[in-house]
What does this fold into?
Amino acid sequence: MAKVHVNGVDLAYDDSGRGDALVLLHAGIADRRMWDDVTPMLAEGYRVIACDLRGFGETPLPDGPFVYAADVAGLIAGLGVERAHVAGVSLGGHVALDLVLAHPELVDRLVLVGAGIDGWEHEPALRALWEKEEAAFERGELDEVAWINVRTWLDGPTRGETDVPAALRRRVYEMQRAALDHENPAATGGWLTSSRRQRLGEVTAPTLVLVGALDQRDFRRIARVLADEIPGARFEELPGVAHLPPLERPEAFARTVLAFLG
It folds into this structure.
């Protein structure tokens, strides 16, 4: 683990392999450890940089405004990388979209995995899960908040708790639980672009859109919109996984990404 000072915060990151740079951006219920099983395979041909976004893992969340994509741009520059492939899952995918729209010169190829998007009207069932999570947070039941997220995103809407390996569920729980300890209402996040959804047609980087076949329906629908509206984007649905394919099927995920990167 190393750290680089960017925009007033020390971003923690791992850096391995040689070749063209590939920046990995984790999901909002995880941290850079979600890439541990995938990185060795990707690092056989690429310089793989996996960071903890602000407020996750070993990167703090200090008071004041911040922008995730600005931190990632600072990370790329701070490590002496002129241009990188960027892959992001969920929140990380949304951040990657913000980055490629604001700084297209920094991004070579783009991989979006179960990515979020602004302006989406989510289904009542998913909103109900978020309300349950918020209520548990307000009661101070942070362990329960973390498990709600495991059930929502790792298990997904069609599997029970016993359908996903207990060790994997524990890994995701621990990453999410650590992020909850970083919570800071005095830190306010923002975006480099006013709307990612309205500007999808401006993405110039070759793009691969991936989504788990067992993911929440909203995110499977969002993936279709991303693939339809980003010029030339490729779409692939990954079987047997929900919202976190690099954790559930690391070998298959790595093969898919490596094939796209060429």
Remarks:
- Strands lie at 2-6, 9-16, 21-25, 47-51, 64-67, 84-89, 107-113, 187-190, 207-212, 234-238.
